[in-house]
Design goal:
- With 388 residues, this protein is of the alpha/beta class.
- The chain has 2 domains: 28-289, Rossmann fold, CATH 3.40.50.11780; 310-388, no CATH class.
- The protein has 11 helices and 16 strands.
- The protein has helices spanning 59-66, 74-85, 106-112, 129-142, 156-160, 206-219, 245-251, 285-301, 312-331, 340-343, 355-359, and strands at 2-6, 9-12, 28-34, 54-56, 91-96, 118-122, 146-150, 177-181, 184-187, 200-203, 229-230, 236-237, 256-262, 265-268, 344-347, 366-369.
- Helix 2 (74-85) runs parallel beside helix 6 (206-219).
- The longest helix is centred in the C-terminal third of the chain and has 20 residues, at 312-331.
Length: 388
């Protein structure tokens, strides 16, 4: 509405400056793993308490709270080291007492709930269907994180049986998890020449893969699929579990992401959510993670509307804030479209906010986005032309 200044003089009302929306972080991991009470700790340090998340941003912080590499913490320690070595920089680690405690992750998952910055979770070595479902249910409830899951480290033929899991229908919870196979062959940090420890370990991939997620987030963006990416600090896939292309084609539709060796490098060669083709628009883990990123960024970035008059001026502020944020996302290549208008829309007006909505103290904004999808298959058409 124009504002009256003097007889015959009006000026168009300009909404107050919109507040810029900053994207939330997507690279912080939450780890759950076994650390025995009797682990050897550095001088003056004591082992972290059970089921209490502890912040780790470098290897020294891990050692001071959970001990250096040793038998009582080895699987968790190698996973966190793999995360840091592959590009991860921040994680929260929850200690459980023993392998039996990994049979019910209810308590450690609850401990991770209050930590808003956690964007992915992993419990290295947990392959039970019940606990993988529990992890994905946690992510569905929080709606701001995904689960990086370990497949069973069985024979190729057992994995071709989809790890014993019947994935034949859509289940929303599966869109919050991505599963990886096979486990990884890594150098054993406890190995010494002539000692009892073997030279190599077989390690669940979730810790290393979570680090790759973080690396891709920082170098490309959360919208880029964490696939066709090298895994650092490993010898290769576990012996005898290297899949052929034809075998992988049987796993792709179900959402089992394969780790393969190519030209001396170990490559994550899949980027799907568990359930794959059955998950429709959320078949790719990058889509789920990017939607989590958008929702949380916009939610946190529009908290300025609280207790503001629910009027057209406020609606315009919201449109401008969200629109500027999405425009930047489109410009960075995260949204699909030749123009910004094709890539997204933001609607906040009298239609989305009728009197009944305003009387309830609500402000409703409708947002649509066209997210880029991975180019998973490359198809060539070749035509032969005769000499004539």
């Amino acid at each position: 509405m124009p504002t009256y200044l003097a007889p015959g003089v009006y000026v168009e009302e300009i909404p107050p400056l919109a507040r810029p929306i900053a994207g939330v972080g997507t690279s912080t991991a939450g780890f759950i793993g076994v650390v025995d009470a009797g682990v050897t700790m550095p001088p003056t340090q004591t082992v972290a308490p059970l089921n209490v998340p502890r912040l780790v941003t470098n290897w020294e912080e891990f050692k001071n709270q959970f001990g250096d590499f040793q038998t009582g913490n080895l699987r968790l320690a190698v996973a966190v080291f793999g995360f840091l070595n592959n590009g991860g920089h921040t994680c929260w680690v929850v200690r459980v007492a023993d392998a039996a405690a990994l049979g019910d992750l209810t308590v450690p998952l609850a401990a991770l709930e209050p930590i808003d910055e956690v964007a992915m979770i992993a419990a290295p070595g947990v392959t039970a269907t019940s606990e993988k479902n529990r992890m994905m249910q946690h992510c569905l409830k929080m709606d701001d994180r995904v689960a990086v899951l370990d497949g069973i480290n069985a024979s190729v033929f057992a994995v071709l049986d989809i790890n014993g899991v019947d994935i034949t229908t859509f289940d929303k919870v599966n869109t919050y998890g991505a599963e990886y196979f096979p486990w990884l062959k890594v150098n054993n940090p406890l190995f010494t020449s002539g000692g009892a420890e073997p030279q190599f370990l077989v390690q669940p991939p979730s810790g290393h893969v979570a680090g790759v997620y973080a690396r891709v987030d920082s170098t490309r963006g959360v919208y880029k699929a964490p696939a066709n990416e090298a895994v650092f600090g490993v010898v290769g896939p576990d012996d005898g579990k290297q899949l052929t292309r034809n075998q992988q084609e049987n796993l792709n539709p179900k959402g089992i992401n394969v780790i393969r060796a190519f030209g001396g490098s170990t490559i994550i060669y899949g980027g799907r959510t568990l359930g794959g083709d059955f998950n429709g628009e959320f078949r790719y883990i990058s889509t789920r993670r990017y939607m989590n990123f958008l929702k949380e960024s916009i939610d946190e970035g529009t908290q300025f509307v609280v207790f503001e008059p629910n009027s057209p001026a406020l609606w315009q502020r919201v449109i401008r804030s969200v629109g500027d944020f999405l425009f930047n996302q489109w410009r960075e290549g995260a949204l699909f479209g030749e123009t910004a208008k094709q890539a997204f829309f933001v609607k906040c007006d009298a239609e989305t906010n009728p009197p009944s909505v305003r009387d309830a103290g609500q402000l409703i904004t409708e947002i649509g986005v066209a997210i880029v999808k991975p180019a998973e298959f490359v198809i060539f058409r070749i035509q032969q032309i005769t000499g004539s």
